[in-house]
Specification:
Blueprint: H1 2-6, H2 23-36, E1 42-47, H3 53-65, E2 69-74, H4 88-98, H5 101-109, E3 117-122, H6 126-129, E4 138-143, H7 149-162, E5 163-171, H8 183-186, E6 195-196, E7 204-205, H9 207-216, E8 221-223, E9 226-232, E10 235-238, H10 254-264
Helix pairs in contact: 2-3, 7-9
Bound molecules: S-adenosylmethionine.
C-alpha cells in the first residue's frame, strides 16, 4: 500500500511529524558518523527511531564512511507519552502509534537499503532491550528515545557500556549548554517531555534530557539540540561533529538538499 502511494521513495509526512530534526542537525549526525567510523562493518545503535528519518541518515553515513554495516534500532513504536505531554505534536505521534502507521512507515522507509547495510529494529523499550546487547559492540550510540529523566539516564549509562573505546555517544534534545542548565529548577519536571522556557528561541526545553546529560558527563560538545562525546579509555570527552566529514543523505528532499548545499557553501570570509 505505502509502496503504491509513495512509489518507493521514503516518506516522512508532517501529519506524523516524520521529520523531527533540522537539516543542519542531520549534517552534524553525518559528521559524527565520519568521526566514529574506523572500518567495516560500522555498527550504529539508535535508541528511538520514529519513522526512520535519522535511521536513514546513519545508513547513508555507513555507505559513505565505511564499506558496510548495521543500524540497530531500539524502539517499541508503542504509545509512550505521559498524560501531561499532550501538545498537538504528542497527539499526532500517539495517533500514529495507536493505529500502526508509525510501524508501517518505519518498515516502509527502511525497506530499500543499499546491499551492504542492514537495519534491525528491536521492538522493545530500551530498558528491556539494551541490557541484552553485548558490551563495546557499537561505533556510535545515538540516544533519541523517551525524554523522561529516568529513561535518558538509563540510556546514557547503557550507552557508556555499549560503545567501543574510541567510539561516540550522542543524543538529541539538549536545548542548552550544560553550564546554563539550572538543575534545581528543572527537577520537578524531569518526567515531562518538554516544558516552556522563554530563554530559548523555540520556547521549549527538555528537562529530563538536560538533567540526565548534566549528571552523566562533566562536559559535552553541545550544538543544540545535539550533544556528543567520544569514549577515550574510561573517559568521555567532547567531540565536535564539525571536525568530521559531512555528506548530504539521499533521503533528503530536493528542498533539504538545496538548504544543505547552502549551509556547506564556503562563505568567502
Ligand atoms: C523523537 S522520536 C525519534 C526521532 C528519530 N530519532 C528521528 O530523528 O527521526 C522518539 C522515539 O522514541 C521512541 N521511544 C519512546 N520511549 C522509548 C523507550 N523507552 N525505548 C526506546 N524507544 C522509545 C518512540 O517510540 C519514538 O519513536
Amino acid at each position: 500500500m505505502l509502496e503504491a502511494l509513495f512509489g518507493g521513495m521514503p516518506f516522512f509526512g508532517a501529519a506524523v511529524r516524520g521529520k523531527q530534526t533540522s537539516v543542519m542537525n542531520s549534517l552534524f549526525l553525518t559528521g559524527l558518523a565520519s568521526l566514529a567510523a574506523r572500518g567495516s562493518p560500522m555498527r550504529v545503535l539508535e535508541i528511538g527511531s520514529w519513522v526512520g528519518y535519522s535511521t536513514l541518515t546513519w545508513v547513508a553515513s555507513i555507505v559513505s564512511f565505511s564499506t558496510g554495516g548495521e543500524v540497530v534500532c531500539v524502539d517499541p513504536l508503542e504509545p509512550y507519552f505521559a498524560d501531561h505531554d499532550n501538545e498537538k505534536d504528542h497527539q499526532r505521534m500517539t495517533a500514529a502509534l495507536n493505529n500502526g502507521l508509525a510501524k508501517d512507515l518505519f518498515e516502509y522507509n527502511v525497506s530499500r537499503l543499499p546491499k551492504n547495510v542492514t537495519v534491525t529494529r528491536i521492538a522493545k523499550r530500551s530498558t528491556d532491550a539494551l541490557p541484552a546487547l553485548p558490551s563495546e559492540a557499537f561505533d556510535l550510540v545515538y540516544i533519541d528515545g523517551s525524554h523522561a529523566y529516568e529513561h535518558v539516564k538509563f540510556d546514557i549509562d547503557q550507552a557508556k557500556r555499549l560503545v567501543r573505546d574510541g567510539g561516540i555517544v550522542a543524543g538529541d534534545d539538549l536545548d542548552k549548554p550544560l553550564s546554563q542548565i539550572d538543575e534545581a529548577a528543572m527537577l520537578p519536571f524531569v518526567d515531562h517531555d518538554v516544558i516552556p522556557d522563554e530563554s530559548l528561541p523555540h520556547g521549549l526545553v527538555h528537562p529530563g534530557v538536560a538533567v540526565a546529560v548534566k549528571r552523566s558527563f562533566s562536559e559535552v560538545c553541545s550544538l543544540a539540540p545535539l550533544w556528543s562525546v567520544r569514549r577515550v579509555g574510561e573517559r568521555f570527552l567532547p567531540v565536535d561533529p564539525r571536525e568530521g566529514r559531512v555528506i548530504i543523505p539521499p533521503h533528503f528532499s530536493e528542498e533539504e538538499k538545496r538548504q544543505a548545499q547552502g549551509l556547506l557553501r564556503p562563505t568567502g570570509r
